[in-house]
Amino acid sequence: MKIEIDGLTKHILGTGDFISIDISKCNNCGSCILVCLVNLWGRKDNRIYISEDYKEKCLECAACYQVCDAGAISFQYPAGGTGVIYEKG
Amino acid sequence: MKTYDLIIVGAGPGGSMAAKTAAENGLKTIFFERGRKPGEKNSSGCGLGPRMWKQFPSMMKDLTPEKCPSLRAGAAARNYFINEEGIVVGYVMTRPTESVSYEPAKSWITMNCYRSEFDPWIAEFATYAGAELKNSTLIVNLLKKDGNICGVVDEHGEKYKAPIVIGADGAVSMVAKQSGLRTRWAQDQITVTPQYDFFAPPNKIDDIMGDEALAVWWSAIFPASYQVFFHDGFHQGLGNWLNKWDKNPLFYLNRVINLKYYQRLLKILDAKPRELQSHLLPWLKYPYNTHTDGVILIGDAGGFPCPLEAEGIYPAMVTGKIAAEVAAEAITSEDISKSALSKFDEMWKKTSVGEEFEAGEELYNIWKALPFSPKETMSWFVPMFMEVMGGIYDWSQPHAKRVRQIAAHVKSYMPKALPFIMKYVFPLVAKIFENDLDKIMDPQKLMSVIPKIMDLLPKKKKQRREKL
Ligand SMILES: Cc1cc2nc3c(=O)[nH]c(=O)nc-3n(C[C@H](O)[C@H](O)[C@H](O)COP(=O)(O)OP(=O)(O)OC[C@H]3O[C@@H](n4cnc5c(N)ncnc54)[C@H](O)[C@@H]3O)c2cc1C
Ligand code: SF4
Ligand code: SF4
In which band, very low, low, confident or very high, does the pLDDT at B193 lie, cut at 50, 70 and 90? Predict the structure, then answer.
């Protein structure tokens, strides 16, 4: 059985961004890309970006924020009552 | 602006325990939760150990399948060993042993239930005691006046005032950050722990697992992975410190799932993946910076999960209770200064949680170097251990010869095993048994003695008849 992760998380979509990157602080180490379980970080033309649809997929683990020693990633939880829902956590 | 005696950010087990204790101490208390209800943002193993029943008996006896339908208790644990080829080369099932002294712990090792049931259950004790729970509310900042912390601000700009704020807001603590106690964990203080939940029919789990509550998959190809059984499903997860990943954590978790043995288990359990979760889990040698003027950090926010296995619910409850007691005293005596709140450290250090951290560094070090170092350590540990456990099951040789072969093979692991034992096992044993053992177990002396003893093992045995 290969596990298809799409469909294994539920979200209540909220408005407002809760993760952002300050490119001027980023040193391109790639750690955020490595630790994000659901692959929401990427690199294009040598610039790190977060996927546009991250609000629909983010697990709110904050591993990206925590791993970024350069302090380039800001993270705040999404608005109360929105975001990922764990029914069997 | 609303005014309270005590504000608690977070309604996990720590926050709820703090809110319950504070309300029972007569404090006007509010606790905030960003989820629509407690528990829907959390993921855990989630195994609850007997220490909780020992310390909070009247509460815990209320945790029944009627309240938490996912509850499953079990007396046994299984340990699988996986080699570098991804083969399950052995497993050991264990039950409570003869030396277990706490009576209930003789019949079960953990009770497991989902956080979506456990967290609301424990929060209800707090609201019943009179604390106010505000759900669906994200606290975004601390309220400050003349530089002093005097409350919190929510996402809508609403202000709540209180002389003391307890940070029960978990691993990514806003309270820790805004109070200046900690911006971010160091990479070797925090783990990320992805986890699958699988559905499985309850009768299948009963038939196949019996009363096994959990399993640990010790492996040379992924960091140790735990499996925890609930009424109608189970978790499979693994973690490691943030600076130890060389691939996506899910790559390693999928390695567990893709083991042939695991696939067979899924098949006979009739199991289907149901949810994917990822959560941070602080894992420290010792908690630090737990309080400042008007602020106390508890549970994950304070770095309290156990230094060996990162069991964190019980420590959150213990530190939550103590923090509320200290807060009540500080408010009565009108001294909320850092030095008054240092009573918090004094008190948790005297508990079972404090005792755990006495050997915190040694426990942390050995865990990091053994199950969480698959390539470096488990790659030789698993075959060495299985040589001892299973080597005798070879009927192609006379048994005595087999024993000599096994001994010789185990000896070949000594260049790796001895330094490991000296670096991680001796310090731990010495710390636990204290003092004198330091002297007996001087690594240098042992290093010179053990190989000599191993050399004494005869390579070839004389035949019995020769002696006659
Ligand atoms: C995968 C995994 C497996 C684990 N397995 C076990 C186990 O088997 N047994 C065990 O004992 N421990 C286990 N732990 C550890 C345990 O889950 C934690 O130690 C425990 O949950 C800590 O409790 P807490 O109350 O301190 O924090 P949390 O449980 O994290 O609660 C914090 C609460 O605060 C809320 N919150 C956070 N920020 C804000 C904010 N700004 N505003 C409003 N609300 C906010 C969150 O939504 C959350 O409900 C595991 C942890 C993980 C990640
Ligand atoms: S972890 Fe931080 S510094 Fe490294 S690539 Fe990501 S954003 Fe840039
Ligand atoms: S919070 Fe977790 S899931 Fe969300 S983007 Fe960061 S690493 Fe990925």
Answer: very high
> Which single residue is written with the structure tokens 């029960």?
B168
Domains in chain B: boundaries: 2-71+114-183+289-358, 362-456
Contact of A75 with A15, CB cutoff 8 Å: no
Give the residue from chain A lying closest to B253, CA to CA: A37
Task: State yes or no: pLDDT of B467 exceeds 60.
Answer: no
Contact (Cβ atoms closer than 8 angstroms) between residue B1 and residue B304: no
Please state, as a whole number, how many other Cβ atoms lie within 10 Å of the Cβ of residue B351. 16
Residue B334 burial (10 A CB sphere; 0-12, 13-18, 19+): exposed
Residue in this structure with the two tokens 């929060």, named with its chain if needed:
B123
- Its pTM stands at 0.94
Q: What is the distance, to the nearest Å, from the Cα of residue B57 to the centroid of all Cα atoms in its chain?
A: 21
Cβ of A77 within 8 Å of Cβ of B172? The answer is yes
Residue-wise pLDDT for A41-50, tens only, equals 999 999 999 9
**What is the distance in A from the centroid of ligand 3 to the CA of A58?**
5
The answer to whether the CB atoms of B249 and A76 lie below 8 A apart is no
Whether CATH 3.50.50.60 fits B2-71+114-183+289-358: yes
User: pLDDT tens, B404-459?
Assistant: 999 999 999 999 999 999 999 988 988 888 766 656 666 677 677 777 777 776 66
pLDDT, averaged across chain B: 94
Q: Which residue is associated with the tokens 């019996």? A: B210
Place of tokens 């979760």: B277
Q: Evaluate if residue A13 carries a pLDDT over 70.
A: yes
Backbone angles phi, psi at B140, to 5 degrees: -110, -15
Domains and CATH numbers, chain A: 13-77 (3.30.70.20)
Q: In a mutagenesis test of the A interface, which of B44, B71, B121, B138 is the best target, namely the one with the most A β-carbons within 10 Å?
A: B138
